[in-house]
Write a structure and sequence with these properties.
This protein has 270 residues and is α/β, with parallel strands linked by helices. It is built from twelve helices and ten strands. Strands 3-2-1-8-9-10 form a six-stranded parallel sheet, with helices on both faces. The protein has a two-stranded antiparallel sheet with strand order 4-7. Strand 5 and strand 6 form a beta hairpin. Helix 7 packs parallel to helix 11. It is elongated and about 60 Å long. Bound molecules: adenosine-5-diphosphoribose. The site of adenosine-5-diphosphoribose has 24 residues, from helix 2 and helix 11.
Length: 270
């Protein structure tokens, strides 16, 4: 089948040649696919990653001063303002072709579950229907004492420019997982269950150094899944992957899905 009416299909010189037919056939026959994603999948949307040497958030900011419960107790205003800055950054971004490709693949395979470490909500915005958020979501706030989600509109502004819980008066904090905190139990249990029952497991845009997320591919592999890593850089998980695609997810994923689905227009919304 030719696709004559796609004159503006982007030329994809960076798409690794290793998108083998066997990978495509596995995806076409797969019943359950999991995609574990990290900050790299949102990089092409303009959201900085964490550990990139130059542009990474942790290259510019000290996580112990901004992303721990101790830091919030010490200086809630500093932490709150930093997350308000990240929310403003997120407001100006849209999903990229990588997010849309996963959403399109999710409509083609019987079950595709996105397990994300990202707190930006871009997978859901791109149309992915089953998304497990391991590290919370930037758009939500919760009471720092009662640990329950509180709607921003119901919160009481404080003199210091923070928001207080309407129930107990404690400060609100972003509903995200900070270093040293446990992941949401339900999300973690679902993530392990999905990872140990899938046929194909994608590892996309994560440095694979933060636990327990970094263990999911190992559990999937042990349970027999076929592991595919998409990342321009080598990671500790590259060694266990069955296929490694060295490229940007916003370029590689559309190409994979184009071959699985054969309809480029659907994927990139062209
Ligand atoms: N496409 C695919 N991968 C990319 C791209 C891209 N366009 N750009 C960068 N990457 C890769 C990098 O090579 C790196 O391996 O994405 C990875 C991003 O790694 P990190 O910055 O460490 O982000 P992540 O793995 O998501 O961090 C895990 O750590 O700081 C905490 O809670 C935070 O969820 C985060 C967790």
């Amino acid at each position: 089948m030719s696709m004559p009416n796609m004159p503006n299909v982007p030329n994809m010189p960076n798409v690794p040649k290793r998108i083998t037919q066997s990978l495509i056939s596995r995806l076409r026959s797969a019943q359950r696919v999991v995609a574990l994603t990290g900050a790299g999948v949102s990089a092409e949307s303009g959201i900085p990653t964490f550990r990139d040497a130059q542009t990474g958030l942790w290259a510019k900011y000290d996580p112990t001063q901004l992303a721990t419960p101790e830091a919030f107790a010490r200086n809630p205003k500093l932490v709150w303002d930093w997350y308000e800055w990240r929310r403003a950054l997120r407001r100006d971004t849209q999903p990229n072709a990588g997010h849309y490709a996963l959403a399109a693949l999710g409509k083609r395979v019987p079950r595709l579950v996105v397990i994300t470490q990202n707190i930006d909500g871009l997978h859901q915005l791109a149309g992915s229907s089953v998304v497990i958020e391991l590290h919370g979501n930037l758009q939500r706030n919760k009471c720092s004492r009662e640990n329950i989600v509180i709607e921003r509109a119901t919160a009481r502004p404080t003199d210091e420019g923070l928001l207080a819980c309407p129930r107990c008066g404690a400060y609100l904090r972003p509903d995200v997982v900070w270093f040293g905190e446990a992941l949401p139990r339900d999300a973690l249990e679902r993530a392990f269950a999905e990872s140990t029952q899938c046929d194909v497991f994608f590892i996309i845009g994560t440095s694979g150094v933060v636990e327990p997320a970094a263990s999911l591919p190992r559990y999937a592999k042990r349970a027999g899944a076929f592991l595919v890593e998409i990342n321009p850089e080598e990671t500790p998980l590259s060694a266990i992957a069955d296929v490694v695609l060295r490229g940007k997810s916003g370029e590689v994923l559309p190409e994979i899905v184009k071959r699985v689905v054969g309809q480029m227009k659907v994927i990139c919304g062209l």
